[in-house]
Amino acid sequence: MRFCRFSYRGKISWGVLENEKVQPLAGPPYYGIVKEGEPLLLADVELIAPVEPSKIICLGLNYADHAREMGAALPEEPVLFMKPPSSIIGPREAIVVPNVSQRVDYEAELAVVMGKKAYKISSEKALEFVFGYTCANDVTARDLQQKDGQWTRSKSFDTFCPMGPWIETEINPHGLNIKLRQNGVIRQQSNTENLIFKVPEIISYISYIMTLLPGDVILTGTPAGVGPVKSGDFLEVEIEGIGTLENTVK
Fold first, then answer.
1. How many Å apart are CA 45 and CA 90, to the nearest integer?
2. CATH architecture for segment(s) 56-249
């Protein structure tokens, strides 16, 4: 199933997508699917970011080819950092390049959306706690990342975490083609089978550090091919079985 968040006549709601229609829901689907009102045409609503997490936990250097292009050694365990929920934007919203950065990069990623509270869970059971998956772009001020020597500022600007267009619940997170197009040109192309640390292992590892709550998001890392954006760019993150996340840059 595909779940979304949308705006219609000034009201923001959750919904289920089916046959170009959106069935509004009474609340977040993690706690049960309760329909509310009549279905709406997808063309009549505005899709917004399909998540409202308490936190966004991200992996760095989780594709070997990306680690090589960054001149970094392959990690022995997951490299974690966080982005604030205030960095989230939805489909077709604009990524805003801050004046303090001269180099902002795109990073296409598979995002995991948690569906249950998870604390100290095994990798064997980890996928039972997942609600679904969506597309993400881990936008990064690369020059600030290198200047600071840590990643908080470079990853945390408002608009630096586009996600969407919806959450897909009926896919296996491994073996999915992932690509990013910049103005129609493919810049990144890989497959989630190439993740160094797989999704169940990632979830288990994080759950031994912090409690994951329903709606929390995990970004699983980006493949090689990261590069700079400029004002006027049109970016597309496409993941097999999910869809395409589109954003502009200004």
1. 13
2. Alpha-Beta Complex (3.90)
Provide CB contacts within 8 A for 248, sequence distance 6+: 92, 93, 94, 95, 232, 233, 234, 235
Give the closest residue to 196 by CA, choosing from 224, 221, 171, 172: 221
Q: Among the CATH numbers 1.10.10.10, 2.40.240.10, 2.30.30.370, 2.40.50.100, which is that of 2-48?
A: 2.30.30.370
- The tens digit of pLDDT for each residue in 21-32 reads 999 999 999 999
Q: What percent of the chain has pLDDT over 90?
A: 95
CA 18 to chain CA centroid, Å, is 22
The per-type count for the chain, helices as H runs and strands as E runs, is: 4, 20
Residue 16 to residue 37: CA distance in whole angstroms: 12
119 touches 129 (CB < 8 A): no
**Average pLDDT in the chain:** 97
Instruction: Count CA within 13 A, CB hemisphere, residue 46.
Output: 11
